[in-house]
Amino acid sequence: MARRRNTSSPNLKLVGGGIAAVVVLLGGYLFLGTPQDPYRTTSPFPVKDYLENASSLRGNTYRLEALVDKTLEVAPESGRLFSVETTGDMLPLFVPNKLNGVNIERGQKFHFRVQINEKGLIVASDIRKP
After folding, report:
1. CA distance 44 to 27
2. With contact defined as beta carbons under 8 Å apart, do 121 and 94 qualify?
3. CA distances from residue 49 to 5, 67, 108, 125 in whole angstroms, order as listed
4. pTM to 2 decimals?
5. d(C-alpha 62, C-alpha 59), whole Å
6. What is the CATH class of 47-128?
7. Domain ranges of the chain
8. What is the DSSP string of 1-20?
9. Fewer beta carbons under 10 A from the terminal one: N or C of the chain?
């Protein structure tokens, strides 16, 4: 009886496995988002809504990517107040003392996790450099 020749090549299996691995990695990257946005699961900050009626956003948490314009006020007992620019609009941002370990200077871009306090002020709860 004649034997059949094995038509499966080890190289073909290796190439197929490599393609499958690339597809899985690419799918994971697209599904999970870019690793450069640490707050990708948090809603983006609604700048226009804030400028129209800040008190309607009280208590909510958002992500904000902004460029630091200047320091407006420094209160050693509570924190620092900055002017930041995002989407062409200037906003006030309060950074409490618990985040004093972050060196914030004019012209730097940051990713902020922010909350709107009871007075309608934007308060940073976390800061990261992009």
Report:
1. 24
2. yes
3. 71, 19, 25, 20
4. 0.71
5. 10
6. mainly beta
7. 6-35, 47-128
8. -PPPP----HHHHHHHHHHH
9. N
